[in-house]
Amino acid sequence: MDHQEFESLATKAVQELPDDFKNKLENVDIIIEERPINDRLLGLYEGVPLMRRTHYYGMILPDRITLFKHSIERVCGERGIDVYEEIKHVLQHEIAHHFGISDERLRDLGTY
């Protein structure tokens, strides 16, 4: 899949988020990169989660959610998963981090 196709699927996944979540994505950029440093990584959230932002939060570069195209495509090929569905899953996982939900809590919820 070329980069533009992958980006279109990621854009569709963001547009299909429930409004309650979409409207609360504050100061977040979603980026697509070919490969992570660690090949097992499908996505990465970097930033200050909403629940940790104080009144001092301001003049800060946007948080970043990075989707790693090659890793997502590899996992989909290995597991027979639809690329769009995996993009949605990874995006929702990283957005959960934006809302302050840890990997441990996501495991407890069964959504990891």
Key words describing this protein structure:
14% strand, globular
Please explain how this structure is put together.
- The protein is an alpha+beta fold and 112 residues long.
- It has one domain (3-109): 2-Layer Sandwich (Zincin-like).
- It is 46% helix and 14% strand.
- It has a three-stranded mixed β-sheet with strand order 1-3-2.
What percentage of residues falls in helices of 4 or more residues? 40-55%
Give the termini distance in whole angstroms: 25 Å
Number of β-strand runs: 3
Mean pLDDT: 89
The CATH class name reads Alpha Beta
Shape: globular
SSE inventory with pairings:
Blueprint lengths: L2 H13 L3 H4 L5 E6 L9 E4 L16 E6 H11 L3 H16 L4 H7 L3
Helix pairs in contact: 1-4
Task: Briefly say what this structure is.
The chain is an alpha+beta fold and 112 residues long.
